[in-house]
Give the backbone structure.
Amino acid sequence: MSATTTGFFTDSTLCIGCKACEVACKEWNDVGSDGLNWSGFSYDNTGAVGHSTWRHVKFVENVTETGRGGNSGDGISWEFSSDVCKHCELAGCLEACPTGAIVRTESSVFVQPDVCNGCSYCVVGCPFGVVQKNEKDGRAFKCTFCYDRQRAGLEPACAKACPTKSIMFGPLDELRLKAETRLEELHARGMEDAQIYNPEHTNVGGIHAFFLVRGNEKAYNLPPNPEVPTKYLKTGWTASAIGSAMLVAGAALAFLAGGRR
Amino acid sequence: MSNGKFARTTERDRVPDYASERRLRELRDEAEQRGSVTGQGIAPAGSPLPRASEQTGYYGIPVLKQPQWTWEIPLYFAVGGAAGSSATIAAMADWIGDDYELAKHARWVATAGAMASSALLISDLGRPPRFLNMLRIIKPQSAMSVGAWTLAAFGSFTAASTFAKMVQERWDFLPVKIVADLAQFAAAIAGLPFHNYTGVLIGATVIPAWNKNIETLPIHFGMSGVQSACSILELLGHEDSHALNVLGMMAAAWETYEGVHIETRAERELRPLKRGTSGWVVRAGGLLSGPLPAALRLACLFSNSRKLRQAAAVAGIAGSILTRYGWMSAGKASARDWRLPLEIPDTETAETKPLTETVIEKISAEKVG
């Protein structure tokens, strides 16, 4: 396997909601059960990615807007999108990790299970709500980008299992070109609401697992302006220094004025 | 939900729909009596169609994950704040106040606090035996890494200063004194970031209620720690120390200001600090560590009542602990607010509410009306 940066391009317009990616991921990575919970709002009973769900198919149901991308106006609009860890260019979880358990590989952000001590600080560092601590196991888990398979020259399990090539795997620059072409094609076919979700304008600086979705990204729980919170560290430590100065000055004053009664 | 994924769609959305059940019973009764029914039936469960949209997000499922820290961590924030502040109090009491008894007790509070802090921090870990993995790297961009190293340094220096000062009490030679004073100085220096870094730790996260307050959280948590350090020392028999009262009063004054600062701002992100269970815990903590001890300590300036001082001290400690638990639970509530990361306007109309919520209300309203 060469050291080219690889990525995922998930084209939601091709997804049929079969959840083969979820199953393949669980089988290959030996990820535990989510339990059987009926959500009651769609065929999505998993809800979100988490420590036991590394691929998650969203079922985006809405009332059809007539004329939207060639919709006839009757029935419902039914879109699917396979969500996954975004493998951010600047990753909140990686920045937060105090043990160095979370590292950057050639292409991905990887949690080393033999180093993680379960402090769960990465959980509050991820702007996409991906990484989560498995409370039974004690460690944090998320998509590994099938690093083991990639090292052996194989594609990730989800991409391999996807029957419609909605999940595409390959060199990142090639995927970006592919996505642009696909977007142009969809626009030409009248699906003006198709768009690529890849937040490059915030300090996340782009993601290695990016998406093509129809309609507003908010319907897919994709935040419009995700931020890596380390950008606030300077403000925080400045406040900490001011607080410390207040303690020193306050204590000095108190003891200068003080004494016992 | 057992795995906690549907934090928003749990009990509240799943309560048995009593309004519908009542209406069904009415219809059955009517059918029995008259042989036919008139009037409206009920909306089928799950109707109208749930929507995932620009206004409702993905069915109102939270984008962010909730903080997964256990009960140990808020207590660690409180204990660490008191321990760190105690080291400064020890140094100042020793070198400026000439109150050697107070300095000695403050060193002990700092040392005991550092030990308790380590125990709490380690027991919160998912894999406690791997605590030392925190010390395999130094990572300035991780507040948790900086904090772990600060705790390690603070614990070592403060224990060293306590020990060296004990040796100095018995053999007061110059070399011993120099070592003891150096250790005490180092402990005070390490105690400074340690007493308030937890504000940076939770402020530099994606949790909106925390992140929005990063400018004031370190000072807020720090002053809360100062207050409880003074209070603990007072309860250990230093109710007659004027200096402790003055320092405690400064801290209480700041906490009062911080309470007003939170209450008077209208940002949506601050809502969990003012509403719901978390809001009331934050408020209770604020009252107990702000206005109440401030007033009691002010009264202590004019009175020698030990009871007043003790009351102020107990309030300060309770307030400091409640404050941290309040902020922790506010963080969890904040993570559940799916509208914030999606930047969805907060107008609670039928259009913007996930229909799972609307359905129940609509049916209830129809039946009542």
